[in-house]
Amino acid sequence: MHCPFCQHQDTRVIDSRVSDDGATIRRRRECEACGERFSTLETVEIKMPVIIKGDGRREPFDAKKLRRGFDRALHKRPVSEEQIEAAVRAVVHQSRMTTERELPSRRVGEFVMAELRKLDHVAFVRFASVYRSFEDVADFREELDRLERDLPGEGQLPLLGGDVVPFDKNVDKNKKR
User: pLDDT (tens digit, 9 = 90+) per residue, 29-54?
Assistant: First the structure.
């Protein structure tokens, strides 16, 4: 590491500390030539895949755009910020783990739908209706039928009528006041 003061090539590490989240290391350094001290931060740099859009355009992976998609689908749904953040992290992790340099946006959309399906069925159907370009009510009905058949929604509101399933077994938040 070059000294930022005198540009000497050799510095020595005096102290190293891992950040609270474990994502960075702060190193306190001292220049062997001029004696000045300074700090550096060391983080892992992982290259995310480039996203190939449906029309062939290529865009850098954007976690903020991913989060906005989750926020739109989960608007006014009973899902905590922590759950949303965990779902975004899961999609980022899945995208990174493909080890591909380029990833079709369709594949990322499938990752998002899998996470939404776990979080909230209504949000899943919202996202799927746009993502899969539902044309009419029959498309919605088909997706709802598939969802109800495949995933008996424990802890979620029923998709079509029926009894309300409480989110918390101790407190029925869905009762009318």
Answer: 999 999 999 999 998 777 899 999 98
